[in-house]
Design goal:
585 residues, alpha/beta, Aspartate Aminotransferase, domain 1, 3 domains, 7-stranded mixed β-sheet, 4-stranded antiparallel β-sheet, globular, binds pyridoxal-5'-phosphate, PyrdxlP-dep_de-COase, pyridoxal phosphate, Glutamate_decarboxylase, glutamate decarboxylase activity
Length: 585
């Protein structure tokens, strides 16, 4: 833990947190309840007035980035006031108490039915699924169900079931690797390449399947670049594999983002329960489900896809309850907010929002490429079937974009037909310097541009692509409901400002400095030492002690003269214990 300046000033502890009786003037900010570094390790010994606690935390959080300008996140950063009202009204409810909160449970069932319908589950069939905290929990449950079914099959056949593996591509989000590791499965990572557009290579994946493969994760919407992996083609390939080898392998779709984008923006794309080998689907309600974190969903194609052993029947508070989540208790308010979004927007509303996101993401892509400085690794702005950046594809993309915008003039944004002309994918723009720019400015660094953008408040991450393609670094912008045309305009302008500033300030020194980012583990005193080296004046512990004692005494005197009504302060030497500074009332 970084103790902040306390490391530099080891004698100083507890500059005043909660040491005094509350007086009327204490209810103002800065009345002495500051968060002293010495206090962060121990549980607060006393409380403080609500107003001070609020202000302290409120102000500390100002150092967080602004969610609205956080281009990195896929998560919902804005909801309507009515949704927020429902959230606040239901903050104290536990989703799992279905007897006490019957109506909340009805909402839960309705949401599951809506998603079963949205993902083309079998008509007339009761949905099998549950609300979860986020996609990670959904992915783990989906992975577990695959593993249990594989194990049951192996045991029935009298075969060894001790070495399960699960196959997915190297562009996987960490939740997939966690699932493999936490539940003792070998993660078989399918290498990605530029040809596979940095995501699942169907043929290589099929080659990695064997009799110990419990199933596959297929990702609808790669976090790295927004590309959709081809669920239909993977399912067809697995069907052929079964004909050739007898291996029967099913798919869990990680639709964290895509399961709420594709049904509205690319409704003809078959990736869901229409595809025979899709056993289960998970998604994040808090991404393009348009709800604040944390909420997610997991649904199975049919009850038989969820092994009975994973379900617990509890007689709980007067009823029988089936549960198959990892966590028991769970906030009800976000489930309620999710239902609000379903009711509020419906298919047309979600359609309008997703199509606007696609449009703005394409606008950003085309604008970036028009600069000559940036090339997109994502493909959503390119004519269907055209992949990768070149001068030719740049022109083709910008021509088609201009055409579709002109043709769409005055039309409602709800028509997804225009998306059919472009490649499928998430409204996410992943981009990097063009080859030309790199050659002209050999030291240019995207990391520096990313850092300079922070000056303007923007959070645009820069990160390497998945293993095997990690020599390419990309910057990423996720376009969300709140990312308007004006937002895109300002982002492009500020990005160019940052790029110019990088060039003006001399690329090399700054970039090599920023190549060593501040590790979160780097302590304040390490930093001071690194900068000042051995020139930094060093004090012995005794010197520090008397130095700080003297200083604090002076502060104390100053306070006493300024606020004569305050109780007198005394310095106590607690027999060598470090908290030698204390006030007595
Ligand atoms: C965000 C994301 C996850 C994890 O989702 P959480 O809701 O944050 O748990 C998993 N997979 C993909 C592809 C994601 O984008």
């Amino acid at each position: 833990m970084d103790d902040g300046i306390n490391e530099l000033l080891p004698g100083m502890r507890r500059l005043g947190l909660g040491k005094r009786r509350v007086t009327a003037t204490d209810l103002t900010y800065g009345a002495g309840y500051t968060e002293s570094a010495g206090d962060v390790r121990s549980f607060p010994p006393t409380g403080m007035p609500a107003r001070n606690a609020y202000q302290l935390i409120h102000d500390a959080l100002k150092f967080d980035g602004d969610p609205t300008l956080n281009c990195a996140t896929f998560l919902t950063t804005w909801m309507e006031p009515e949704a927020e009202k429902l959230i606040v009204e239901n903050l104290g409810k536990n989703r799992v108490d279905i007897d006490e909160y019957e109506q909340t449970e009805r909402i839960h069932r309705r949401c599951l039915a809506h998603l079963h319908d949205l993902w083309n589950g079998k008509r007339g069939q009761e949905p099998t699924g549950t609300v979860v905290v986020g996609s990670s929990e959904g992915i783990m449950l989906g992975g577990l169900a695959l593993k249990w079914r594989w194990r049951e099959r192996r045991q029935r056949e009298g075969k060894d079931a001790s070495r399960p593996n699960i196959v997915f591509a190297a562009n996987a989000q960490v939740a997939l690797e966690k699932t493999a590791r936490y539940f003792d499965m070998e993660a078989r990572l399918v290498p990605v390449s530029e040809q596979s557009r940095f995501c699942l290579d169907i043929e290589r994946a099929a080659q990695m399947v064997d009799e110990n493969t419990v199933g596959m994760f297929v990702i609808l919407g790669s976090t790295y670049t927004g590309h959709y992996e081809n669920v239909r083609a993977m399912s067809d390939r697995l069907a052929r594999l079964q004909r050739d080898t007898g291996l029967d392998v099913e798919i869990h779709v990680d639709g964290a983002s895509g399961a709420f984008v594709a049904p509205f923006a690319q409704p003809t794309l078959e990736w869901d329960f229409r595809v025979p080998r899709v056993a289960s689907i998970s998604t994040s309600g808090h991404k393009f489900g348009l709800t604040y974190p944390g909420i997610g969903w997991v649904l199975w194609r049919a009850p038989e896809c969820l092994p009975a052993g994973l379900t617990f029947e509890l007689s709980y508070l007067g009823g029988v309850e089936k549960t198959f989540t990892l966590n028991f208790s769970h906030p009800a308010c976000f489930l309620i907010a999710q239902y609000y979004q379903f009711l509020r927007y419906g298919r047309t509303g979600y359609g309008r929002i997703m199509n606007a996101c696609m449009l703005h993401a394409r606008l950003l892509s085309v604008a970036l490429e028009a600069t000559g400085i940036y090339a997109c690794v994502s493909d959503i702005h390119r004519p269907r079937g055209t992949l990768g950046y070149s001068e030719e594809t740049r022109l083709a993309a910008s021509d088609l974009f201009a055409e579709t915008v002109a043709a769409g003039e005055g039309k409602s944004g709800a028509d997804p037909a225009v998306n059919l002309e472009f490649n499928d994918g998430l409204p996410e723009v992943a981009f990097c310097f063009t080859e030309w720019f790199r050659q002209k400015h050999p030291g240019a660094s995207q990391a520096v541009v990313s850092t300079l953008l922070r000056v303007r408040g923007w959070i645009v991450p820069n990160y390497p692509l998945p293993p095997d393609t990690a020599d390419i670094e990309v910057m990423r912008v996720v376009i969300k409901e709140a990312s308007s045309e004006d937002y895109v305009n300002r982002l492009v302008r500020d990005l160019l400002w940052a790029t110019k500033t990088m060039l003006d300030t001399g690329v090399k020194p700054l970039s090599s400095a920023l190549d060593q980012p501040l590790a979160s583990s780097a302590s304040t005193s390490d930093l001071a030492h690194e900068i000042a080296g051995s020139n930094r004046s060093t004090m012995s512990d005794g010197e520090k002690h008397s130095h700080w004692k003297g200083l604090l005494q002076r502060i104390g005197e100053l306070r006493d003269t300024q606020r004569p009504e305050q109780p007198k302060m005394e310095l106590l030497d607690n027999g060598g214990r470090k908290s030698f500074y204390q006030k007595t009332c």
